[in-house]
Specification:
about 80% helix; mainly alpha; about 0% strand
Length: about 150
């Protein structure tokens, strides 16, 4: 009796495991939170993508801040310091401000403040998307300015 019972149990377990794979895969896709279902979900996702784009530039900002500081130190001994120093100072301030803007956006961004209705969420995430786009534009502009000065 045991000789028949063990293979039957093993066969049932194998069949039940294989049967659940297909169902859980489609169920997983249906419940996947990364797939936007509403306009507010889409706006939230685009705001977070904007955040990711800006954050990817934080290392570059740090690198250019260091390079601009090095160039500032090397210009200190030159005779034409008066013409070279202001653009370098401006570039350094721009890079610092860009980093501060990103940090402020991250600190202020709070999905719990989005509201309860779809309309409130849409307004909140649309506004946050616009803010992060502005931050990213400033980040890219400050990096480009520093890049031009450092590569001169």
């Amino acid at each position: 009796m045991m000789k028949i019972f063990v293979p039957v149990i093993v066969t049932i377990m194998i069949m039940s495991c294989n049967g659940n794979r297909g169902a859980s895969g489609s169920e997983e896709q249906q419940n996947n939170s990364s797939v936007p279902r509403t306009l507010s979900d889409s706006l939230y996702k685009t705001a977070m993508e904007g955040h990711d784009i800006g954050m990817a530039k934080m290392g570059e900002i740090a690198r250019y801040r260091k390079l601009v500081k090095q160039k500032t130190d090397s210009v200190a001994d030159l005779k034409n310091k008066a013409t070279l120093q202001p653009p370098l100072d401006s570039a350094l301030q721009g890079l610092t401000h860009a980093e501060e803007l990103m940090n402020r956006w991250m600190q202020d961004f709070d999905p719990d403040k989005a509201g309860n209705t779809e309309a409130e969420k849409v307004d909140y995430y649309r506004n946050e998307k616009e803010k992060i786009d502005t931050v990213n534009a400033y980040i890219f502009k400050s990096i480009e300015m520093a890049k031009q000065l450092v590569n001169e």
